[in-house]
Specification:
By secondary structure, this protein is of the alpha+beta class. An eleven-stranded antiparallel β-sheet has the order 15-18-19-12-7-6-5-4-3-25-26. A seven-stranded antiparallel β-sheet has the order 10-11-20-17-16-13-14, with helices on one face. The chain has a four-stranded antiparallel β-sheet with strand order 21-22-23-24, with no helix packed on it. The longest helix has 21 residues. It is globular and about 75 Å long.
Length: 566
């Protein structure tokens, strides 16, 4: 933290660094300065909407992100609970005032329990601050908010599902509640939620690539799917140690750790993992894992413009490119050009209508772009399926594609033609079974090597023709992707048969301006989607989504875990 320029300092840095110093019993003389800076960044105006909250960074000069107080009070609450006797009296007086005002900031920042990481963190802050400072009514509110998260999870699942970043924040928040809260009821709920989250992680953990695989609600790492969760899994021995950061100290507070039995779930193959993540029937996720390849889809778009709703993960190095769908309106298919987002910068993609269905090795995804989905400053409109270039062979129909060093290319792909990648004994294929451009005609489809530094190719459905403006005329441009995976293909002949069988498999499309019906002949049975204008929800999906919080091979194990809290 000390290497940051002053304007880049965040309020959460100050509290995390102060807590780190106190835990190490080093440099108590630095605390007054840290708490003075924190007071400078706190809104101290009682009539302000953001009273008690903090600027995110020193450069903000006002509260822009109301989550700031929740991140800050992870360190603030533990400073008082664990280390106040180490803090010199003048600094302790400063801290107490900061905490008193922060309580108001936390109380005013009540988020929906579906906002998983902040809802958990906020509840934990109120519980620990209330108990540490002897404010019973504050702790009561914290326990009520934790209970709301628990009840939401029982009915609808974990909303911020399988995020490589925010799942780690969830674990840290629950770990702190479990370790330090004083009420048995709250500790029991935190333990049950920890067991659910860790079971979820284990079921979606892909040992062949050593990372969380499958569709993800929110990610900052589109190509590789890595994030802060790495620290939690490394601490529990699932990964080698990873470099710590300023927030790692909160991960270290946990007393509850997943059992070896939970970890062993990641080694069961094949396995079908399904889970709900919202109140609507189609807010659900499916993930089918084989030893060397996985396929996953979400039946609804998450809505945060950072989700990965259709993915393939192949065996290999952790930092290897995933297969993923992305709706791109600004020539950023790899999520590397962040946009201003309040106090932050984030690489948002578009937020079109999305739905999907999956039957084990076959998934069918549909994207439709409504007029409201394209911002005025859009520079393109492309439905991309990004995929790794570092594979053993790449085929379009009967043509083998051989990328050559630094040469870029745009290889045309016919509608319905199979693009197939092989790596070892694993394979996956993609077919665009339907598409529509802004001009109402079929989209243009290409396999593209654009010279990116990530080692990625793109199967691009371009909805904007040469010279067209990327604005809507009301025709709902879109595309449908059929993805299939396979494993155990030992010979070239087996691979060729797989390729040809996939391309020959039937796909039925009935599309008009106000409705669409899609059905494909999956290996294990039909996979289908029906939807109609105004494109807010699918009409039907086959197979139907699950409503279980977490399901393994048809068994509702999430319900069993969640029923253990009394």
């Amino acid at each position: 933290m000390c290497r940051k320029q002053p304007e880049a300092l965040t309020a959460r840095d100050l509290f995390a660094y102060a807590f780190t110093l106190c835990e190490a019993h080093e440099h108590p003389e630095r605390l007054e300065r840290l708490f003075s800076l924190a007071a400078q960044m706190q809104d101290r105006s009682p009539n302000s909407r953001s009273f008690g909250n903090f600027w995110w960074s020193m450069s903000d000069k006002k509260v822009q992100d109301y989550n700031s107080v929740d991140f800050c009070m992870r360190g603030g609450s533990l400073l008082w609970l664990k280390d106040r006797d180490f803090i010199p009296a003048p600094a302790r007086e400063q801290l107490e005032q900061l905490l008193d005002d922060s309580i108001q900031g936390c109380l005013h920042h009540k988020v929906d329990p579906s906002y998983s990481n902040i809802a958990i963190m906020n509840a934990g802050d109120l519980i620990l601050l209330g108990e540490a400072l002897g404010k019973l009514e504050v702790a009561d509110e914290g326990y009520a908010r934790l209970n709301a998260v628990f009840r939401y999870t029982q009915s609808s699942g974990v909303h911020e599902y399988d995020s490589p970043t925010y799942t780690g924040v969830d674990l840290d928040g629950l770990g702190m509640i479990e370790a330090f809260c004083r009420r048995d009821s709250g500790r029991a709920q935190a333990r049950v939620l920890l067991e659910l989250f860790w079971t979820d992680i284990a079921l979606n953990w892909f040992p062949a690539a050593q990372k969380l695989a499958g569709a993800q609600s929110r990610t900052y790492d589109y190509p590789y799917g890595l994030g802060g969760l790495d620290e939690n899994v490394a601490l529990n021995g699932w990964l080698p140690p990873v470099p710590p950061n300023i927030d790692t100290i909160f991960t270290w507070q946990a007393n509850w750790h997943p059992s070896e039995q939970i970890h062993e779930l990641s080694n069961q193959f094949p396995r079908l993992v399904r889970q709900s993540w919202g109140a609507d029937w189609w807010q659900s996720r499916t993930h089918y894992l084989l030893p060397d390849v996985t396929l996953s889809c979400a039946a609804a778009g998450y809505g945060g413009r950072m989700d990965m709703p259709l993915t393939v993960d192949l065996w290999g190095e952790r930092k290897s490119v995933r297969g993923y769908f992305i709706a791109d309106g600004r020539n950023d298919p790899y999520g590397k050009i962040p946009l201003p987002a309040g106090a932050h910068h984030k690489a948002f993609h578009l937020n079109p209508f999305w739905t999907a269905a999956q039957r084990t090795v076959d998934a069918l995804g549909l994207v439709l772009y409504r007029e409201k989905d394209i911002p005025a400053n859009a520079t393109t409109l492309v439905s991309d399926f990004v995929m790794p270039m570092k594979v053993d062979s790449i085929w379009i129909g009967e043509r083998q594609i051989k990328p050559e060093g630094n040469k870029t290319f745009r290889e045309p792909v016919r509608p319905g033609e199979a693009l197939v990648l092989r790596k070892g004994d694993a394979v996956f294929g993609v077919r665009v079974v339907w598409s529509r451009g802004l001009d109402g005609r079929e989209g243009r489809i290409f396999l593209i090597d654009d010279g990116n530094p990530y080692g990625a190719l793109r199967l691009a459905v371009e909805h904007v023709g040469d010279g067209d403006e990327p604005t809507f005329k009301g025709n709902n441009a879109g595309a449908a992707f059929w993805v299939r995976i396979g494993s155990g293909l030992k010979t070239d002949a087996e691979f060729a048969d797989w390729r040809r069988n996939f391309e020959a498999a039937s796909a039925t499309v009935n599309a008009a301006s106000n409705h669409i019906q899609l059905s494909v002949a999956g290996t294990g049975g039909p996979v289908s989607i029906a939807a109609k204008a105004p494109w807010d929800a699918p009409e039907t999906l086959e197979p139907a989504p699950t409503r279980a919080a977490l399901e393994l091979n048809g068994e509702d194990i999430g319900g069993k875990i969640l029923s253990a809290a009394h």
